[in-house]
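Trying the structure run again after the queue cleared.
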Amino acid sequence: MTDQELSPADAALRERITELSVHIPCGGIRGPLQQPSAAYPHLPVKWQSCRHEDSAQRWAGHDISREYDLCIICCKATAGGSTRWSWLACENCRTLNHELGETGIGVLPLGRHSLMNGHAISGGANIEEQAARMAQFVERQRRLHTWRDREYGRLASDFEADVDVPLRLWQAHWPPSLDASRDAFARLLRWLSSTQDTQD
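Done. Tokens:
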């Protein structure tokens, strides 16, 4: 997509936002991933969109046209990547998830692709049983996204409702850390338990 194809609103947005920012209405991170430099003034700017733009930027050769998202658990650190083999959670939350698995409680499906979470349907085995496990995986990821919306809403309430907050300022206000991930994880597990989530 070229600048000429942008709507007036999207063009104005790209003039206004000069660094990666959290769009408070949706929690999507949007903004430039590259900036022209003095040495390379004509370097094209790679833009990451959120769902509220008129025409979201699409990147050729990528599964997903996003490099960064807020962690699906703590909503403070970043996760993501432009392939379907990317993580939905930050490194700290993935570490805690791994530790949870070692206790025998079961791990949360934090990989974007089902295979990253050990789920696939293959021939030669009980297809109905595999399909049931896949359906459970899909439901568990749906519940994680519900949690993310709840947790993000709690954190975003500290900001004005219709602004873009630079990611660096979001993280200065809500610093990512292992302790922050631990706190979010504990509340997530209580929420899952209170809503009768079933773990593998």
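Helices lie at 8-16, 91-102, 127-156, 167-173, 178-194. Worth checking whether this holds up in the mutant runs.
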